[in-house]
Fold this protein.
Amino acid sequence: MSHISLETAAAPVSRARTWIRGSRAEFLLAPSMLYYLALLVLPSLAFCVVSFYGKSDTGFFDGVFTTRNYVRALGDKFYLASLWLTLRISIETTAACLLLGYPAAYFLSKIGPAARKKLIVLLLFPLLLSTVIRVYGWIALLGRRGIVNQLLISSGATDQPIAMLYTEGAVLVGLISILLPYMIINITNTLITIDPSLKEAAAIHGASPLRVFLKVTLPLSRAGMVSGAVTVFTIAMSTYIISFLLGGPRVKLMGNLIFDATASFNWPMGAALSVVLVLSTTASCAVLMQFLGKNSYGAAR
Amino acid sequence: MAIVEVSNISKQYNKSWAVDRTSLTIADGSFFSLLGPSGSGKTTLLRLIAGFLRPDTGEIRIGGQVVNDVPPHKRNIGMVFQQYALFPHRTVLDNVAFGLEMRGSGRAERERLAREALEMVRMSGREAAFPRELSGGQQQRIAIARSIAARPAVWLLDEPLSALDRKLRVEMQSELRSLQQLLGITTIYVTHDQEEALAMSDGIAIFRDGRIAQQGTPLELYERPVDAFVADFLGSANLLDGTATRAPQGWCVDIEGMRFPLARDANVSDREQVRLAIRPERLDLLRWDGHTAGAGLPASVESLVYLGSDLRVQLRTRGGSRLIARAPSRSDLASLEVGHEILAVWRPEEAVVVAH
């Protein structure tokens, strides 16, 4: 939120913007709002309703109100462990993307706009490939007979193949490799909006390069870190295919359990797990935003 | 406090010299302006002194110490930026205290000095505000307070008033000047506004194409410009071409068939083509019938512009030169009309021989 308001704060409100803000602006929202209402809000509400029914052997649900699904989702050790694992892997992914992405974003913000454009295209290039194909690449690398194990064995570093695939670590590596570009782009976009004269002002008034970074660049890029972290975290929380292919039967995230529930025709249980996942993702993001950036630097005048 | 010396400094940008073998000495505690059109190198020189740029040749000394290899944060400089450059994530008090914080002052000490600086710019009471909650003029004052709070040795100002409206600008000029005198701080002020430079400075350097065209006190520059560029950039000037002649009573100049005496200290040679610069307000106009011979340059009135306090008269000489005269609007020139024939006259010492 502070991301947008920061950039536009200094500019005087133009006539055009006033008009867009005015009463007629709602019409511009109508098409997308209708789309979301029909295809997101209504189905989600239906989900919530279904999650309070029991399962049916013949239909989608039995139509009898029950809280049994939620009691299981939040009381059963199996489901709780999965929720905790999902949260933990998502937090780890977000933290790793922040640590790996910030230096890269800082570099991108330092170079000229032409070179930056080229490198960002390169960065986005993998996103053109299907996640499934990219994850299969990791399987080829990390499998028992994968490239990494073959290298290790032929170099004599180990005589037994190391089990890298179907571990939490493999899922983490896969998630980071796929989500890192989102973090880099979010942070870069914020870094390049920082007025260079702010850094000069800090330097001339006694800040060493390190303190210019800590006192000016880092706090002013918080908005980019928040938007990057929220993007990475939410995608990681709802991941399904990456954990399915790289985690196998041992690393079951919420997405995989929802799939398992629906695959066994227990639609109400799947719905309840989905509601739990959405609510825990939302709550975590709220905490994340509190933690990383709540300052809007004063109200607009 | 410190003397600032720049010797033989050059800085190249994209194969052209933004600053070209420039030397300058700014006396301890003086207010010095770098004046020139945009792209003339004045801002580049300021950034070289600040340490944001490294010179390609030459030396910069602050307080006698060569600072070429000293990074900006160790130069003990305070600076006001053109667009204020306040930290948006810090309150007014934390902005002003920034320099003190970086220099390692304790919390109580830096709050005391920051409040003191805010008082000097008459912004007490807004300590807790964020920059975006303030008007442009208020932000400007905070930027000024931030630049002086740590009492630096040198004060740099990069066109600080250019974003303000005229009335506020004039008000801030005198405030900046009295603040500078109160602190006794060596000040370098970049501006493209000649009025501003004249009003505030002890010394001015006029820049043109990366070099200093002339430097001196405001009075020297205005009364004795070395060339047409300086004469026209600082105020405005009528330029008249003529031929220097030795006459019994001293040096004279022939302009459009009329002979005018030159100032006694004029440095010319016989038959030399010279150019005279005469300020519009130093040109006197005499009523003339258009026929009888008189001691003045014959011209006719082309237009009259009423400027409130002043009247601006545009003239065309018989030889085709265009002249501008300026006089208080309540003088007897007020009765002039377009088409009137007049004689333009000036005192010899008001006509400065300038380089072509």
Notes: Residues 77-110 of chain A form the longest helix (34 residues). Chain A touches chain B through 27 residues (CB under 8 Å).
